[in-house]
Design goal:
- By secondary structure, the protein is α/β, with parallel strands linked by helices.
- It contains eight helices and five strands.
- The longest helix has 25 residues.
- It starts with a strand and ends with a helix.
């Protein structure tokens, strides 16, 4: 039986996660794998309803509320989407996963990392097989995100210092677990980013038993 795999794509605002997910989906589909793409928060009916609350710029949420809502949406996603897909041998691509809570709620909001780790063990119960971190400077990322137009969401409205803390935690987590993480320089032109992602993914797939 084909073993299912969980690949997560992490990064700050404007990192280009959607483009990378499309590229990975095409590469894996070309190898004959079923691919299930999802996102956080969201990915299920309940999760998408929670996402609307979390990103609503008119709402004022306590950091504790934000953290618990993130994990509530994640509980639905893991049990409704990720675990069933892995059980049938699919590859799951998730636009963010638990590492985002360590970065955004832990780094950005200053929440206790130990509590986040407890929630990860209790609510998620799984870790990604591979995580791609699309890394770029905060100012460049925010300029890209705001250049898309539209009203910034509740989190996009945070200041640069918030996103610097997010980036610092992401890079620290990547450095502490290099066997799982691959850091991609997302400041380069999109075609170069996609080329690097494909190379990293090919190498990782070749290393699998």
């Amino acid at each position: 039986m084909t073993i299912g795999r969980l690949i997560t794509i992490e990064g700050g605002e404007g990192a280009g996660k959607s483009t990378v997910i499309d590229a990975i989906r095409g590469l894996l589909a070309g190898r004959g794998r079923e691919v299930v793409a999802t996102r956080e928060p969201g990915g299920t009916p309940a999760g998408e309803a929670i996402r609307a609350i979390l990103l609503d710029p008119t709402r004022s949420l306590l950091p504790e509320t934000e953290l618990l809502l993130m994990f509530a949406a994640r509980a639905q996603l893991v049990r409704e989407t990720i675990l069933p897909a892995l059980a049938r041998g699919a590859v799951v691509l998730s636009d963010r996963f638990t590492d985002a809570s360590f970065a955004y709620q832990g780094g950005g909001r200053g929440m206790d990392m130990g509590r986040i780790a407890e929630l990860e063990r209790w609510v998620a119960g799984i870790k990604p097989d591979l995580t791609l971190l699309l890394d770029l400077g905060v100012d460049q990322g925010l300029a890209r995100a705001r250049g898309r137009g539209g009203e910034p969401d509740r989190i996009e409205r945070e200041d640069s210092a918030f996103f610097e803390r997010v980036r610092t935690v992401y890079l620290a987590r990547a450095a502490s677990e290099p066997e799982r993480w691959r850091v991609i320089d997302a400041s380069r032109p999109v075609d170069e980013v996609v080329t690097q992602v494909r190379a990293e993914l090919d190498a990782w797939l070749e290393s699998l038993p």
